[in-house]
Write a structure and sequence with these properties.
Mean pLDDT: 96
Order of helices and strands: HHHHHHEEH
Number of strands: 2
Structural class: mainly alpha
Shape: globular
Distance between the termini: 37 Å
Radius of gyration: 16 Å
């Protein structure tokens, strides 16, 4: 497993997420496995459907969004690391949530999916060599290198865990 990633290259608007990662992005991703497991212990049938304000997503929607985003960012890392020359499209997070069949998804499924997706992301990143991490590609019309994505996943997860604790699980 690569302990130290090359400097991530990413669009400036992701700086907030990247700045939330202190130290190794890979170590942060590993630590977040426990953080996410602990978070799910605080979630019940009542608060998973809670939305803290009109027009804001429910907790369930936020959790599924986090999973969707990790899968998308992991795919982007894979494509760029493998030398994809085609531009990778962006995605509409609201459309993804609208079409997520949330009424049929349980808390257990979400928790199990989180665990599996995170393990999959870590397994993927473990396969990357030094040259893979520095490859650049275009996603959502912007240039990234593969090493940006562990930071983006970890920072995005941290951002949402903080919001969940502050606004959903008071």
């Amino acid at each position: 497993m690569v302990k130290r990633l090359p400097k991530p290259h990413f669009p400036a608007y992701f700086k907030g997420y990247v700045s939330k990662v202190k130290g190794s992005a890979i170590t942060t991703l590993q630590k977040q496995e426990k953080d996410l497991a602990d978070l799910f212990k605080l979630i019940n049938k009542k608060n998973i459907e809670f939305s803290y304000a009109p027009g804001k997503w429910s907790l369930k929607e936020v959790l599924v969004h986090m999973i969707d985003t990790e899968q998308i960012f992991s795919y982007r890392a894979l494509a760029i690391a493998r030398g994809e020359t085609n531009a990778i499209p962006g995605y509409d997070q609201d459309l993804y949530i609208k079409n997520a069949n949330l009424e049929h998804i349980t808390k257990k499924q979400i928790a199990d999916n989180f665990k599996a997706i995170r393990k999959s992301s870590l397994f993927l990143f473990d396969t990357f060599g030094t040259e893979d991490w520095v490859r650049k590609g275009k996603a959502n019309g912007k240039i990234f290198n593969a090493s940006a994505f562990p930071y983006l996943i970890a920072g995005h997860t941290k951002h949402h865990i903080d919001v969940i604790k502050k606004k959903y699980l008071k």
